[in-house]
Each structure stands twice: as C-alpha cells, then as structure tokens.
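<instruction>
Derive structure tokens from the sequence
<entry> Chain with its tokenised backbone below:
===
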Amino acid sequence: MPTATNSNSNANYIYRMGTSPNTRAAVSQKNKVYGYMEGAQRFQQIGVVSEFGHDESRAIEPIRGVGYGDQVAELIPGVTEPMTLTVNKTMLYAVNIFQALGYKGGVRGLVRSLKHHRWPFDIRQELVFSEIASAWDTSEYQEKALTQTGAVPTPASVIKALFTFYEGCWMNSYSASYTSDASIVAENSSVTVTDVLDGKSTYGEYIDSGLAPVSENGSAGVGYSIRFSGGGAATPAPAV
C-alpha cells in the first residue's frame, strides 16, 4: 500500500520535475499546490493538478442623498463572500484528491463522500518566480542585491515565490467522471475557504494595504484617490 512518502516522491516517475521557460509573464507550470497528504506531517505538493483557481466577490452598495441629484455620495463595500477554490486533478489508482488533501480516502481508508469529511484542511499555493523576474524585477524586495555587472545571481540564492495559505477549507462539491470516449479519469472539486493569509504578516484593522491617503506616521500617503485630496470634495461643500 502506498505511503505518504513513496506515493509522491522522486522514485515515482509521475512526479518527475521538468523545467519551465524564463519569462516575465507568470506561467501555470510554475504554480505549485500543496496539501497535507494523508499520513504526512507536512505540506506535500499535489501532483497531476489539471486546474487550480480562486474566486471571491463582495457586493458594493451605493449611498445617495435626496435633493443632491443623480449622484453617488459614497460606495460602501459589503461583507466579502467566502473565497472558493477550484481544484481539479487526474485520479491515480493510489492517490485520489481526498488523500491529497489529508483525508483517509481511496486505498488509505473509508472516505468516499463529502459527508465523511469531519475536519477542515489547509492548502498552500506557491507561484515560483522565474530567474529573470527574481533577479531583475523584484530586486527591491530581495535581501541579496544584484552584482554590479547586472549578471543573474546563482538561482538557488535568489529565486523567489509568492506564498498564499488557504486556511480552514471545506470541500463543497466533488465529482469524478468515467467516460467511454476518454481514458483519463478527472476529479473535479470546489473548496470553500475560511481565511486567506500570506503566512508571514500580521493581519488586523490597520494593515498596510496600499492607497492610504495618510501613512502610519501621519505624513501624506502616495497613490491614493483624488477623492481624498483637498478635503475630498471636487466642489465646495455645502454649509451645514
């Protein structure tokens, strides 16, 4: 019976790593998805993922005032709906998507249905930067500066990745199709996420999300909307 260590290792040719082109545009070949493989004590990369995506939304409600014409006074963001992930992969005999996300499914246990899921799981995403993006386009974020000649530093010392942690996830839909006109068995799932983090920062009321008209030390911000310049009114405010 496969274990967490030998079912997703270099010994298995299914998980043999290839190379990717060096581009400034992000490519899906460099997007890695990790789960707590059943029986493992750490994140392991999920293999043969055919699609990974995320989607979220929130309503934006307008405020208007009687007597002020057809004018929006302010837009108020509503409550953000929970993020939804799409995680689709090719089914393997020894590893299905339940196992890849930590459940005792397939050959590892009795989990065959969503109703057998008793605990949430986490997913980690890594968008690994190319060498050119790591060395030349993100130098201001690096601890190691470029050489004076502009040469690309050793990849092992400079390659960066954008980490995203999807916390407290529950699978809300799952399907697998066996068709007569196709050999590959596809597993399709939709996942609802409790929270989204970068794994390093402290989140709270006063996070630096950018576009603030006033910085933390009270000085003027940069890049903010013209709505907040000069008191925030394009025309003189009416007397109250």
Summary: The longest strand covers residues 161-177.
